[in-house]
């Protein structure tokens, strides 16, 4: 009886060992493709986030810049971009391009017609790109401006540097007269042109106003 019991336990042990080996083999077979898949996925992911040799990461567009060697000799204020303008007139109708003062056309002008105000003060302030040394133009009231017994056709302008110092003191302009402007900027990073004492329907013109390189 002991021999039979031992024989039965040996048989059971052998069967258990065989089943165990089979389970290990099955697990190994199932696991192998899974590991291979993970390895492949890791490699794909790594390739997706790692730039190839010699490639550069994309960079955002840089803002417009001016180089003294490539910028035009004359840069008209009508071509100022938004990132160059610090302050614009508000209570005005503005126009870019052709304007005339006392019958003389100025094709590259900025014009501001005062609206809904009396004795208005408005300013145009802008960044001076590197290399420009003078502000030039002809300032006056356009031929479209109203000038009669009610509207006197008179506006003052003043030019300031970045620190608020007057480069041009308050200057009176009465239609149909105009004032030629040629102002040294002396390395100023910003300029502000103030137009004051304007009334409804008076249109002040920065005739062919431009930044120039000496």
TrEMBL record:
InterPro entries: Galactose-bd-like_sf, NPCBM_sf. The keyword Membrane applies. The chain crosses the membrane at residues 12-30. Keywords: Membrane, Transmembrane, Transmembrane helix. This is Glycosyl hydrolase family 98 putative carbohydrate-binding module domain-containing protein. It comes from Leifsonia tongyongensis.
């Amino acid at each position: 009886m002991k021999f039979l019991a031992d024989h039965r336990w040996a048989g059971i042990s052998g069967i258990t060992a065989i089943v165990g080996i089979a389970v290990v083999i099955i697990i190994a077979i199932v696991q192998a493709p899974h590991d291979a898949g993970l390895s492949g996925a890791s490699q794909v992911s790594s390739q997706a986030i790692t730039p190839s040799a010699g490639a550069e990461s994309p960079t955002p567009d840089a803002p417009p810049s001016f180089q003294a060697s490539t910028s035009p000799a004359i840069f008209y204020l009508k071509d100022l971009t938004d990132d160059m303008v610090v302050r614009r007139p508000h209570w005005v109708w503005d126009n870019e391009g052709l304007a005339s003062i006392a019958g003389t056309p100025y094709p590259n002008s900025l014009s501001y017609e005062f609206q809904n105000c009396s004795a208005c003060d408005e300013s145009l302030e802008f960044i001076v790109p590197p290399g420009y040394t003078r502000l030039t133009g002809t300032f006056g009231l356009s031929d479209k401006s109203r000038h009669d017994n009610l509207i006197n056709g008179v506006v003052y302008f003043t030019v300031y540097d970045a620190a608020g110092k007057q480069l041009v003191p308050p200057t009176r302009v009465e239609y149909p007269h105009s004032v030629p402007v040629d102002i040294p900027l002396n390395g100023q990073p910003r300029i502000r042109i103030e137009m004051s004492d304007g009334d409804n329907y008076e249109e002040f013109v920065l005739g062919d106003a431009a930044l120039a390189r000496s």
